[in-house]
Amino acid sequence: MDGGFTRVGPRSVARVLELVGRLAAAPEGVPLAALAAAMDAPKTSLLGLLRGLAAEGYAIQQEARWRLGPEAVGLARAILAAAGDGDLVTAARPSLEALASAVGETAMLAVLAPDRGAMVYADKVESRTALRFAATVGDARPIHCTASGRVMLAFLPPPWPAEFLRAARLTRHSPTSVTDRRALRRFVAETRESGFAVTLGEATEGVAGLAAPVFGARGEVVGAIVLAGPIARVEPRLTMLSRRVREAAAQISRRLGHRPH
């Protein structure tokens, strides 16, 4: 049994790694016949390996050519995590565009300011509707009454969240802003449990916000995806929109190399 593993196991692993390497070197794709010739391997054997990779998202076939799949890109980012999580804005942009187009509301990427005193919009894709939430990249928003801020409070590690909830000034920005610490702690706990946050007119009157966390390759929260629009249009669709914003955040997290256990 051990002898069989010695002969077959490493050879199979080496072949898979060589196959992935050849796909990585050919972003335009490679036909199966060309792979078989380059690797001096039977097409039937390589096809089995390619189908296995495709089933897990590590390879895709388009127009008779094989290419690396999205999971391979995420894995590469995870391997390179020691050198940084990659460009968050670049990773988020495709999902922001798809999200805004699919639901008809403004989609944004929000990050915590370096001094941890506010949320800052790092990118945006605005809704095309006449009545929409208009955001400006670089805008600073309050932490305690925004959906993205509550995501940070829910998912950043201690001690900062507890320190903020204990000592931060909870300014009223609208008639519905939550300024009671006990209520805010409850909302943060609900965000941690559900995986997303919702605010209704707390930072800006008449505007609803939904947010979900984006995680880096090491599992740390690095930002939040936010949807914002008129309460009258957003509130009836909260179930669907919360699912969409969580899906977008998960897509971006995977592009950054996040692999939840």
Characterise this structure.
The protein has 261 residues and is of the alpha+beta class. The protein folds into two domains: 2-68, Arc Repressor Mutant, subunit A, CATH 1.10.10; 85-255, Beta-Lactamase, CATH 3.30.450. The protein contains ten helices and nine strands. It has helices at residues 2-24, 32-39, 43-55, 70-79, 88-103, 147-155, 160-167, 181-194, 231-234, 238-255; strands at 30-31, 59-62, 65-68, 106-112, 119-125, 140-141, 197-200, 207-215, 221-230. The protein has a six-stranded antiparallel β-sheet with strand order 6-5-4-9-8-7, sandwiched between helices. A three-stranded antiparallel β-sheet has the order 1-3-2. A hairpin with a 6-residue loop joins strand 7 and strand 8. Helix 5 runs antiparallel to helix 10 (238-255) and helix 6 (147-155) packs across helix 8 (181-194). The radius of gyration is 23 Å and the shape is elongated. Residues 1-8 and 82-86 have low confidence and may be disordered.
